[in-house]
Protein 1
Amino acid sequence: MTKIRACRVSDLPDGSCLRVECDPPLAVYRVGGEFFATADTCTHEEWSLAEDGEMDGYEVICCLHLARFDVRTGEATALPATVGLETYPVEVSGDDVWIKYGD
Ligand code: FES
């Protein structure tokens, strides 16, 4: 398991998301004081959810064709996406937000 430092807690206001440059690119979200992480690329086509998406509660909306995903589970909740996003564990340590991914 690899850990990547995604951002500082203060970089991510509640209701927002950030792209994390790694392979694969990840997205980190903060909703209701909790942190979540998923793959950043929409499963419909190649599009960054964190760079060009919008948050609506626990859902991220892809701005290209308006698919939605639940950031807690990765589940695709609106068409045209039918495949969910990978999700990843998040750890908060002090002011640092870490994502665990890979083997
Ligand atoms: S690329 Fe995301 S909905 Fe089409």
Protein 2
Amino acid sequence: MKRLFIIAALLSALACAADVFLGTQRINTDSGITLGPQGIAKRYLGTQLIFEASAEEEVLLTPAMTSNTTPAPFVVAASSQFNASDWAAWRAFDQQAVNGWSSVLSAGTHWLSIRLDAVRTVTRLAIDQRVEYNWPNYYVTEFELYYRNSSTDEWAYFGTYNPAAPVAAGDTTLDTAITGLQAQELKFVFTGNHTQNGSASLGEIRLYGH
Ligand SMILES: [Ca+2]
């Protein structure tokens, strides 16, 4: 689809001699205004080109986190952390399956949450199970997804998901399309944990959308 948008944009550019494309940017030579580069040209509104690709393309919604609050304004939180280093909450969003999050080693209502940089449309959700120590005995089998648009809102239930059992360390055990979810904050409540002590643990949560 991206290629089609580029071709359409180039054809539009040829039809409108006053406009020059520079990569995905369109420069309106009449006004001297540079539009983009936040997306790919999709349609014209009068003489103005509207960039909408950023609302169409599915991208990873989270950067590689390096602490529970870095980079800002993203914030990762958890009901508990086994420790604040190797098994910290942000390890579920560091874009490395080899590093993961673990709750404390006891039964309880374990959860993870992330605050995104803005209200986003979530279109896909994937879970990578952990790689580290004793992975065959520590993985998530069920979780409930909640969402809200502001920290002052109540969490709203969105759905329940059942990742498969991993057959190798770090396996992606859930990769599913999501429709109808717009939120700035997402919360994962782990209601099924295949663990030896009631804890919850995983390698990575990947949220895609726009
Ligand atoms: Ca990770």
Protein 3
Amino acid sequence: MEQSQSRNVIITGASSGVGLYAAKALAQRGWHVIMACRNLPKTKQVAQAVGMAPESYSILALDLASLASVRQFVEDFRASGRSLDALVVNAAVYKPRLKSPERSEDGYEISVATNHLGHFLLCNLLLEDMKKSSHPEPRLVTLGTVTANPKELGGKIPIPAPPDLGELKGMELGFKAPIAMIDGKKFKPGKAYKDSKLCNMLTMLEMHRRYHEDTGIIFNALYPGCVAESDLFRDAPKLFQIIFPIFQKNITGGYVTEEESGERVAKVVADEGFDKSGVYWSWATAKIKIVRRFVRKCLMRPLMRTRLLGYGN
Ligand SMILES: NC(=O)c1ccc[n+]([C@@H]2O[C@H](COP(=O)([O-])OP(=O)(O)OC[C@H]3O[C@@H](n4cnc5c(N)ncnc54)[C@H](OP(=O)(O)O)[C@@H]3O)[C@@H](O)[C@H]2O)c1
């Protein structure tokens, strides 16, 4: 059994993008990072490549698309003897080009299985470990996104559809084939991602409501900015992968580097001033505010009017 004096944080999906750079930033702050990943050789290689000191991290196998793997991960983590002072819900898949649903080991649609169901089980199991932390304010931090918030500009984009869980009909019916969407409607892979991220946010809020007062655990979320060059977009069309970073850098100004996004996560996990529970942190730029106002005035209002007149659906 290994014991550690430093603070311990589990980060899911720390083998690339936001998660990897959050791991680096937290290791630099003196935290021990448990990198919870599905590809162990890759994780070892990238941790070395970004210059993380070997004693600042450990790597544990976690495949969020398998509920058995989530349970095994929790057992392995407990066997390490480490305390748990923070958990970062970060890993995700985005598969906008799927023609038909891909299924997890347990038979669920892959985006919701990975991004929501796997994390939902993980958070609930690890809650017990976080309750035992000696940290004055253990934090459970969830990566959110503007596209999952129907009240934000990004969440209003109708391509393929805004996030919408409907009456949870798909879940009620068991969420296995032929069901692939939470609302039980037609499969739309891009929407499945948005729905799964909306579930992440609802889980965070519900955990805050149920457990914050009694446990003192901080449940919060953040939008890290638009990390337009991360691997998240690996399955998006090639043209999109070229244009999207240019658009985000020059038009919206919402672009952030992977390094900066990781630094933002580290702040929410470890820094003073981020100890509020039930909140969502975001770093909006002036450019984004201007674009948001423009789109609301020139695009969304006419679109809403068209809908009301019954022409567009
Ligand atoms: N990129 C953005 O602009 C943006 C904006 C807002 C929010 N976010 C959020 O930030 C988070 C990280 O995104 P990112 O941009 O850093 O994407 P990314 O570079 O693709 O990283 C995703 C991570 O999740 C891991 N992962 C995927 N499926 C998994 C599974 N079944 N089990 C365990 N790990 C799995 C990946 O592992 P492999 O290395 O093995 O593939 C990778 O480490 C996501 O929650 C995303 O929704 C991103």
Protein 4
Amino acid sequence: MTEEMKFCRQSRVYRSGRVFPNDFNNHNTLFGGRLLSNMDQVASIAAAKHSRRECVTASVDAVEFLHPIRPEEYVTFEAFVVWTGTSSMVVFLKVYTENLRNGEQKIASIAYFTFIALDENGRPYKIPGIVPETEEERYLYETAKQRNNYVAEKKQLNKELVSFLKKKL
Ligand SMILES: CC(C)(COP(=O)(O)OP(=O)(O)OC[C@H]1O[C@@H](n2cnc3c(N)ncnc32)[C@H](O)[C@@H]1OP(=O)(O)O)[C@@H](O)C(=O)NCCC(=O)NCCS
């Protein structure tokens, strides 16, 4: 492995916490916006650990809210870099819960966050490549590579959408 490569485990971050009444929506389950904000925070730590640079979130893809999160559960966020481009990093984010009364565990949410590492002038900065080791990391690496094929297409479509919207301003 060259100096320019890092293992997925080197960026891995975990954060666990309880959910409090202020975090809930009208259905007494965790508010999706609050969950996303926490996911972005944890994912940004993984991106910074991989690149050791300032990073910005470029896009958030394939967010799935799979199960509502209830007051009797605590939440764990797990994030790590699964794929890298030149300055971009795809961070996979997994949120799981455990019911504190009966120990039942669930995957509550998953998402892919793309971060861009920046240099001192705020321009994209070349980052180390990524080396997956475990079965899960290899699976995520391969599928993230396929997902990345859509990035250029999505960017072009969004560019067209933004020009269209600007005409309406
Ligand atoms: C993200 C940002 C730096 C990209 O700038 P840019 O001038 O379009 O950069 P480039 O076209 O040179 O692309 C740089 C990299 O970003 C990637 N990228 C840019 N937009 C992207 C998007 N929407 N999704 C995924 N990757 C993206 C490019 O593919 C490229 O990756 P690579 O270096 O691995 O090949 C810029 O759009 C930005 O600052 N956006 C605002 C970010 C922000 O405020 N986030 C919220 C708070 S952190």
